[in-house]
Specification:
By secondary structure, this protein is α+β, with helices and mostly antiparallel strands. It folds into three domains: 1-36, no CATH class; 59-126, no CATH class; 137-229, no CATH class. 44% of the residues lie in helices and 10% in strands. It contains eight helices and four strands; from the N terminus they run H-H-H-H-H-E-E-E-E-H-H-H. It has helices at 3-11, 13-26, 59-75, 77-92, 104-126, 193-203, 216-221, 225-229; strands at 137-141, 144-150, 158-164, 174-178. A four-stranded antiparallel beta sheet has the order 1-2-3-4, with no helix packed on it. Strand 2 (144-150) and strand 3 form a beta hairpin. It is rod-shaped, with a radius of gyration of 49 Å. The termini are far apart.
């Protein structure tokens, strides 16, 4: 410290204290040197964000997995949902080993294909047996007269139609097609001639063709002569 400074500190204590602030701030030997400010890099300890997982499947593998997952959902909704979740989670984690043949993506596709085949086979085994085809003709189901015939045009499949009674005696009845009714019929529902004639009196028309009964012989037997002869 210079002699002038020593004299000022001795004779003028207030002035000395005031001067001390400058010496201290300036880092001189008149006081405690000021510490250097430490500037900390705010990003020094921040880790870089991890890179997005890489989907290592080939586009063809990804498309095939999606197709197979949809098929499994259609065959078993619960299993399909679990399959899709597994694929999504594994893809998000970048866990598919390789897009090459023999990689674990390929192995999983093979498992999915096997599962689709298994589910389809199970459904075929569980499907009800196809009902034996009925003989075309007249049947009685729950009080309704049903005529079973084969379609002449189109599919050629068998179907049934219900007789609707005429509004007045002597008028023609009408036929209403009933989808799926043949699946409810068996040979035990087949009408015989005697029962058909009995029903003719109730319906007021021939239960075989639906025409109104106007001839004396038809009214007497409750069925047209031609229908009675070929019943």
């Amino acid at each position: 410290m210079s002699r002038i400074a020593e004299r000022n500190y001795t004779k003028k204590p207030h002035t000395a204290r005031w001067l001390m602030t400058f010496h201290t701030a300036g880092g001189t030997n008149l006081g405690t040197p000021a510490k250097e400010d430490t500037v900390t890099d705010p990003f020094a300890n921040v880790q870089a964000a991890p890179a997005a997982p890489v989907d290592r499947r080939s586009p063809a593998q990804a498309a095939l997995m999606e197709k197979l997952a949809t098929e499994i959902e259609g065959l078993d909704a619960e299993l399909g949902a679990k399959t899709r979740t597994y694929i999504e989670d594994k893809t998000a984690a970048g866990a598919w080993a390789s897009a090459a043949r023999g990689g674990d993506a390929s192995a999983w596709i093979d498992k999915m294909i096997s599962k689709v085949k298994e589910l389809r086979a199970s459904q075929r085994q569980a499907a009800p047996a196809v009902a034996e085809e009925l003989e075309d003709g007249m049947y009685l189901l729950d009080g309704d007269v049903i005529k079973v015939v084969h379609a002449i045009h189109g599919s050629g499949r068998q179907y049934g139609k219900k007789l609707v009674a005429p509004e007045a005696p002597g008028e023609n009845g009408s036929w209403e097609r009933i989808p799926g009714v043949v699946n409810r019929l068996t040979a035990a529902h087949k009408l015989d001639l005697a029962k058909a004639m009995e029903l003719g009196a109730i319906y007021g028309c021939c239960v075989r063709c639906g025409r109104g009964l106007t001839k004396e012989s038809s009214i007497r037997q409750q069925m047209g002569d031609k229908c009675a002869g070929s019943f």
